[in-house]
């Protein structure tokens, strides 16, 4: 049966999108693959279709619980019953049952942390997998070194001599990140499909302000006058709350979203945004990965992104339907210093290295550093990983280099703020590519007119736009009582 026939049988499509066929054919030939496909280009089909051809389990390592759960739910909606997610949403009984019956599933989603658990490894070692997929593979480089070192161990865990092909998927990656992906996954001369990172329908704006309050006032004015749906990114959890409240008071249907919220609250707000009950989300960068909303019209960065890759990932959440969308980068004097501080604030320092050694010399567990309030859990994970990889002096050098890289990455974003030449060209060039064509209203430096891209906001006063989600739940429950 031809690939197109299989595509039509399981997914109802008559043709592949650019890159899908090439990636699938290489996997079917047994080759490792790195595929960079922009958001909305159908990365998941690249492993789902081989899963039906091989008819042996496909293991998908996924970075976020919400992303994992969303993918599982989507597959179940398309009548795929042999799919499971191994994550913290499972209670102990469900987890034991899932692991025990893992061989019965066609698609197995798992987090890097769960993958390292001994009982999971034992079960996987007893199974014959058809394919190993690392989704959002840029996280190996962007997150692994910083606060989830378990990403750097994926290749060690899965690197059996007779392992199946490994497929690494992402939307964006620099040459350095591509190198990290290949090295840390122990890939064997992988085939690389690199699609252009340029999204011509996303028009790039930027605004410069004297002070941060002036910037906030501009956001309030702009959002109340123009149409969403949209996402406003900011670095501070506190700011997500305060800015969303000010927008609420201005009559905009919005909610805050950040990593400190209860997971169920986050899930509910995310679903409200997807189904159109909320027009805007004010969020930290905890929001976005795995949010399948096609019609996001605007992405506004209130704070300076910590690096160009994050910026590209975040603006890529706009315009997945192919329609014109607007990404606006805002800057006020001193924003770069705040971004640098936030970037390195939770990093281990030399004193932590010395303390770690001291605990070991006293035959005490270094994890006591967390319990004694000496270091955060996130910083300890980074410290512990490198202390088991390198000598102490080398760990100090590594941590110093990582901090320097963080600060340099902020300066690269500042280049985008300061440039007088085409923002799109600079952005594409950062990822080692060449811009082929400039769309009309390309960017701020090319004469972008916002009114050509976004509509004026329609004021709708309807019960369905009620913002207080707790009140909405109460009303729903009353309706069922």
TrEMBL record:
It comes from the Bacteria. Signal peptide: none annotated. Residues 24-191 form the Helicase ATP-binding domain. GO terms for biological process: DNA recombination; DNA repair. Keywords: ATP-binding, DNA-binding, Helicase, Hydrolase, Nucleotide-binding. GO terms for molecular function: 3'-5' DNA helicase activity; ATP binding; DNA binding; four-way junction helicase activity; hydrolase activity. Coiled coil: none annotated. One of its GO terms (cellular component) is replisome. Residues 215-365 form the Helicase C-terminal domain. The keyword Protein biosynthesis does not apply. PANTHER family: ATP-DEPENDENT DNA HELICASE RECS-RELATED, DNA HELICASE RECQ FAMILY MEMBER. This is ATP-dependent DNA helicase RecQ. It comes from Ureibacillus chungkukjangi.
